[in-house]
């Protein structure tokens, strides 16, 4: 029942027309309607305000049409996936869009509708009557299969982030990845516990060794031809801060600290489901940053996989450590594109807020493609610089690198510069400092776990690697 809400209504199902109407176009639209429709909407005070939704009865009292307000020009400019707001306000049944959007807007609006059907119900008992069952037929002119794949992948990402850490540790993250691999015929290898030291992943081991939940590196491979695309996601399944323990207010959302891993898993699902002609690799260092006698200490100096030494000046800056080993591994086979996603810094939120993730890249073609993809896919991003003068901030003096420069400034940039030290120069690389959480309900984006940047990356990669990588679902 639940997963069916991430798909479109059958094309042959009886359906009710759903009219999307702007506030400035309401009068013209009403002039074209039968008198009973005009009378009903005038009597109910329908003004086509943003998100306003109303059903219009026929002479027998049955729903003959539904109307949905888009608001004025200012409201439309501020709202993406506006149609998602209608889904939970409409009664059960099937609907079809009967105007209101330009053709190029339809994929975004259809995706917003599907994403609005999401709710995290794992621990909540709900009857069938409580489920939102309004369904939409795929609008003509869209790639309904692609939109459905994007929705299903986002549902996966949201489920992973929303699941409490007690039920989503490194082992459960591995189990989910194994299920995804089985679905698409991918292969997964895993390096566990002390084997991380034997296989030269010392930073991943150092972060995860204090927990009784065994740290691991998850390595998925799919596809045997085409460009190499490697995705790396931060999989810190809970972050206490380590010995530099977080205050309670900062620890409350730390189940989402594996949001980077959840997002790249969703992105990998999109690529595999769409049948791209690529050699896909997905690397997830899955750990819990806990506190015990074996925890790494402030002031410890660690040697990373690529030989660089790192002074640990804050055990709460652990995400960049586990990513460092994974990025170094990724570069050993020279990928054609390397994408890193992580819920990495509070500084990114201070600079850009929860809804606008920064990304970092030295590749101008990739930067342009990501900016274009963010607009096309309604997946906003903002480019930030690898600012060379700040390199000295991540060099502590007694080691090659400092994982947590003091001073409190440029925290997202210095974290990105740190990660770049583990990427082979010349690699087409982009790092995304995402939040992974929606603070309040918005159309298509209910409060809770949230994928960010995946759709923009999906759009951008064929632009830089060539459209030939795109296959048929």
How is this fold's topology laid out?
Elements: E1 16-22, H1 26-31, H2 35-44, E2 53-57, E3 63-71, H3 73-78, H4 84-87, E4 93-97, H5 106-116, E5 134-136, H6 144-162, H7 170-184, E6 187-192, H8 195-198, H9 202-208, E7 216-222, E8 228-233, E9 235-239, H10 248-251, H11 259-273, E10 279-289, E11 301-303, E12 309-311, H12 319-331, E13 337-342, H13 346-352, E14 358-361, H14 364-376, E15 382-383, E16 401-402, H15 411-420, E17 429-433, E18 437-438, E19 448-449, H16 454-465
Parallel strand pairs: 1-3, 1-4, 4-5, 8-10, 8-13, 9-10, 12-16, 13-17, 14-15
Antiparallel strand pairs: 2-3, 6-7, 7-10, 11-12, 14-17, 18-19
Helix pairs in contact: 5-6, 6-11, 9-12, 11-16, 14-16
Q: Low-confidence parts, pLDDT < 50 over ≥5 residues?
A: none
Task: Assign a percent range to the helix content.
Answer: 25-40%
CATH topology of the largest domain: Aminopeptidase
CATH superfamily of the largest domain: Zn peptidases
Q: How many domains make up the coordinates?
A: 2
Mean pLDDT across all amino acids: 95
The end-to-end distance, rounded to whole angstroms, is 23 Å
Biggest β-sheet description: 9 strands, mixed
Percent in strands: 15-25%
Number of strands: 19
State the secondary-structure class.
alpha/beta
Shape: elongated
Radius of gyration: 24 Å
CATH architecture of the largest domain: 3-Layer(aba) Sandwich
Helical segment tally?
16
CATH top level assignment of the largest domain: Alpha Beta
């Amino acid at each position: 029942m639940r997963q069916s809400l991430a798909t479109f209504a059958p094309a042959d199902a009886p359906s009710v027309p759903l009219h999307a109407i702007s506030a400035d176009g309401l009068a013209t639209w009403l002039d074209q309607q039968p008198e009973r429709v005009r009378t009903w909407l005038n009597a109910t005070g329908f003004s086509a305000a943003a998100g306003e939704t109303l059903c219009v009865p026929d002479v027998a009292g049955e729903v003959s049409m539904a109307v949905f307000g888009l608001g004025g020009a200012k409201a439309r400019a501020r709202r993406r996936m506006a149609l998602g707001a209608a889904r939970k306000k409409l009664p059960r049944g099937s609907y079809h869009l009967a105007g209101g959007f330009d053709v190029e807007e339809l994929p975004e609006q259809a995706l917003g509708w599907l994403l609005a059907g999401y709710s995290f119900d794992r621990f909540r008992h709900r009857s069938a009557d409580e489920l939102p069952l309004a369904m939409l037929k795929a609008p003509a002119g869209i790639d309904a299969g692609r939109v459905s794949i994007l929705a299903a992948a986002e549902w996966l990402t949201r489920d992973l982030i929303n699941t409490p850490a007690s039920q989503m540790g490194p082992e459960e993250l591995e189990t989910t990845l194994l299920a995804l691999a089985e679905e698409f015929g991918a292969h997964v290898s895993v390096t566990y516990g002390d084997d991380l030291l034997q296989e030269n992943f010392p930073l991943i081991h150092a972060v995860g060794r204090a927990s009784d939940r065994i740290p691991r590196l998850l390595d998925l491979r799919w596809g045997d031809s085409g460009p190499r695309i490697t995705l790396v996601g931060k999989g810190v399944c809970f972050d206490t801060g380590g010995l530099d323990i977080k205050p309670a207010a900062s620890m409350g959302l730390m189940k989402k600290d594996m949001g980077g891993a959840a997002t790249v898993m969703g992105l990998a699902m999109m690529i595999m489901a769409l049948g791209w002609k690529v050699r896909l690799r997905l690397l997830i260092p899955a750990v819990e940053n806990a506190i015990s006698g074996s925890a790494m200490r402030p002031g410890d100096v660690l040697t990373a996989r690529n030989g660089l030494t790192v002074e640990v000046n804050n055990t709460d800056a652990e995400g960049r450590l586990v990513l460092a080993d994974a990025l170094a591994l990724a570069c050993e086979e020279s990928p054609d594109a390397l994408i890193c996603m992580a819920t990495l810094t509070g500084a990114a939120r201070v600079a850009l807020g929860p809804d606008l993730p920064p990304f970092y890249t030295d590749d101008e073609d990739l930067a342009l493609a990501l900016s274009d993809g963010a607009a096309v896919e309604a997946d906003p991003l903002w480019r930030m610089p690898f600012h060379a003068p700040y390199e000295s901030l991540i060099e502590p003096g007694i080691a090659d690198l400092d994982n947590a420069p003091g001073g409190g400034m440029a925290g997202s940039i210095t974290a990105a510069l740190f990660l770049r030290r583990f990427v082979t120069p010349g690699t087409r690389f982009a790092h995304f400092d995402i939040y992974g959480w929606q603070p309040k309900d918005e159309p298509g984006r209910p409060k809770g776990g949230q994928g960010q940047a995946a759709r923009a990356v999906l759009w951008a990669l064929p632009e830089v690697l060539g459209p030939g990588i795109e296959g048929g679902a």
